[in-house]
Design goal:
single chain; alpha+beta; five-stranded antiparallel sheet; 2 helices
Length: 233
């Protein structure tokens, strides 16, 4: 009986580990190979980690990922970042560490039904490999211009596909990405103020994150332990 219980326990551990390795389903929040651990964000307005604030635009909120690895965003304003229009609009994502295998930046623009004109339109994207946040003055030597971009407007419907995919293969290494926002899609006055924002940003690497590799190793180890115990009995 004791041996049987140990077998079941080992099998349960192996299945749990393997569950972590299965392709993302509709409940998943990050694209395959997207950086998940340690990513934070700050912005000129509506900073923080509560609903509608900067951290919501990098934590996978409102995003579902299907078995093909494609991401779709909700229409909930709480799941992204929206701020008051200003003369100096910026958003900085901190990846938590320097990465030299960056491949793409996936952007989902504001997707709130009836309010997609709040979405970011023209934006200058900068990157930095500084050890600490270099601040929002993108004219300093700490920042390098990646390019000038126009983000596509969100559809305002459920399960919106990615708005833009920005190529990061020219970035040798970076920890910080700064968005110097120039315009939105026309929202000027809503309840007395105009707004600008983003639904989600995800940074994808060319190889899996260390955490993903660790989970893979745990899954394989669990399977090996189960098979080894089974052979003994």
């Amino acid at each position: 009986m004791t041996i049987r219980i140990r077998q079941l326990t080992t099998l349960s551990m192996a299945l749990l580990a393997l569950g972590w390795l299965l392709p993302n389903t509709a409940s998943a929040e990050f694209l395959p190979n997207a950086i998940q651990e340690g990513v934070t964000a700050e912005a000129y307005d509506y900073d923080g980690n509560s609903n509608g604030r900067s951290y919501r635009a990098v934590d996978g909120s409102g995003l579902t990922v299907d078995s093909s690895g494609d991401g779709f965003h909700s229409t909930n304003w709480e799941d992204g970042w929206q701020a008051t229009l200003s003369g100096n609009m910026w958003f900085i994502a901190d990846l938590g560490a320097s990465y030299d295998t960056l491949e793409s930046l996936y952007v989902w623009n504001v997707n709130e039904a009836g309010s997609t004109n709040r979405g970011t339109k023209d934006v200058d994207i900068y990157y930095s490999n500084a050890a600490s946040n270099p601040g929002s003055d993108f004219t300093t030597a700490d920042w390098t211009l990646l390019g000038n971009y126009t983000f596509n407007q969100g559809p305002g419907t459920a399960d919106a596909p990615v708005s833009n995919i920005i190529d990061l293969n020219t970035v040798a290494a970076a920890r910080f990405f700064g968005l110097d926002i120039q315009s939105n899609y026309g929202d000027t006055v809503t309840s007395g103020v105009g707004r600008v924002g983003l639904a989600e940003l995800q940074f994808v690497t060319a190889v899996p994150e260390p955490s993903t590799l660790l989970l893979t190793a745990i899954g394989l180890l669990g399977c090996c332990l189960f098979l080894a115990r089974r052979r003994r009995t």
